[in-house]
Amino acid sequence: MPASPTGDLIGRSLHDPAYIDAVEAFDAHLRLERGASEHTRRAYVGDVCRLLAAFEDPDGEGLPLSDIEPGNLREWVLTMSRSGASPATTARRIASVRRFFGQCLRSGRIDQDPSTRLRTPKKPSRLPTVLQQEHAARVLDGADGRIDPARAGGPSVPSDRGGPAESPDPTTRAVGLRDTAVLELLYATGLRVSELVGLDLDDVDGTASLVTVLGKGGKVRRVPFGAPAARAVDAWCSAGRPALAREDSGAALFLGVRGARLDVRQVRRVVNTATDAVAGTPHLSPHGLRHSAATHMVENGADIRQVQEYLGHAALSSTQIYTHVSLGRLAAVYDRAHPRA
């Protein structure tokens, strides 16, 4: 059986057999017990390997895990700070190391956890970049013009490379229908881009207007979508996808021009192209559409816990960033409703 990407990473980064064994056990714990994705596991394992490699001598012999002390870890954090690591990067690496040593303690590799007193640097609060509601409507109306050209003033259909085509051939038209469905479904459901590209045909219930999503940690949720997204997905599945599908396309909902499952990079290009085409809109990523969808729901009165479920956030604290956008709306409600306003 070929080595996994995380296994390759461990083998390239570490030499001490005890370190390799401990990190491989940690990786297995993440995969089997926590249901972590390959991407998440690679991030955690990479952070831990970076730490442990610093404790190996030139001959590849590492400081025993049981001899690593809080002072060693504080020095590691200080070194990161001096090297210019951002607070967000430092906080993520500390979280990885804490999880690793916690697993080592539970498995009996160490008797005391040296990471318990590590202090996480405070990350500066950064509000997400979002579309204004009117800009979102213009972006999506322009995309819908690929289904109904009258809505966009003509049949301009961008290709995978973002260039327009005057008279689209079947492949180019299929790509246009796909991109419309991608944009509408991203905004309608607030999916993460990884969740979107992972969708299969059976995950979309067009009758009930629901999409079944496999989210972080292997958690499944069902998210509703509205009529514009339903029209776009139906048009893609009936008139677009058949033009791109190949024998080995499988059940993937969204396909690239060669018939393979659409990837994250292609979706990012679709969103960049669509938002850049509308004057006054920020340069937006797929995650920006997710932010925008959640923001607009809060602005229009959605309960924050409903938005938490909609986004698939495990903790309410992850969702509360969206409450910043409702401050203006709250002030307006206050002026209208409070007797002493």
From TrEMBL:
Q: Name one GO biological process term.
A: chromosome segregation
Identify the stretch(es) annotated as Disordered: 111-130, 139-173
Domain Core-binding (CB) residues, every copy: 17-105
Which domain of life does the UniProt lineage start with?
Answer: Bacteria
Where is this chain primarily localised? cytoplasm
* Residue ranges that the Swiss-Prot or TrEMBL entry lists as coiled coil: none
The protein's GO terms of the molecular function aspect are: DNA binding; tyrosine-based site-specific recombinase activity
Q: Which InterPro entries match?
A: CB, DNA_brk_join_enz, Integrase-like_cat_sf, Integrase_catalytic, Integrase_recombinase_N, Integrase_SAM-like_N, Tyrosine_recombinase_XerC/XerD, Tyrosine_recombinase_XerCD
Q: Which residues form the Tyr recombinase domain?
A: 126-335
Q: Where is the active site?
A: 192, 216, 287, 290, 313, 322
Record's keyword terms, sorted: Cell cycle, Cell division, Chromosome partition, Cytoplasm, DNA integration, DNA recombination, DNA-binding
Q: Which Pfam families match?
A: Phage_int_SAM_1 (PF02899), Phage_integrase (PF00589)
What subcellular locations does the record give?
Answer: Cytoplasm
Stretches with biased composition (Basic and acidic residues): 139-149
- GO (cellular component) term, any one: cytoplasm
Q: How does it assemble?
A: Forms a cyclic heterotetrameric complex composed of two molecules of XerC and two molecules of XerD.
Q: Which PANTHER family match?
A: PHAGE INTEGRASE-RELATED, TYROSINE RECOMBINASE XERC
Q: Give the protein's biological function.
A: Site-specific tyrosine recombinase, which acts by catalyzing the cutting and rejoining of the recombining DNA molecules. The XerC-XerD complex is essential to convert dimers of the bacterial chromosome into monomers to permit their segregation at cell division. It also contributes to the segregational stability of plasmids.
For this chain, the family text in UniProt reads:
Belongs to the 'phage' integrase family. XerC subfamily.
- What name does this protein carry? Tyrosine recombinase XerC
Source species taxonomy: Bacteria, Bacillati, Actinomycetota, Actinomycetes, Micrococcales
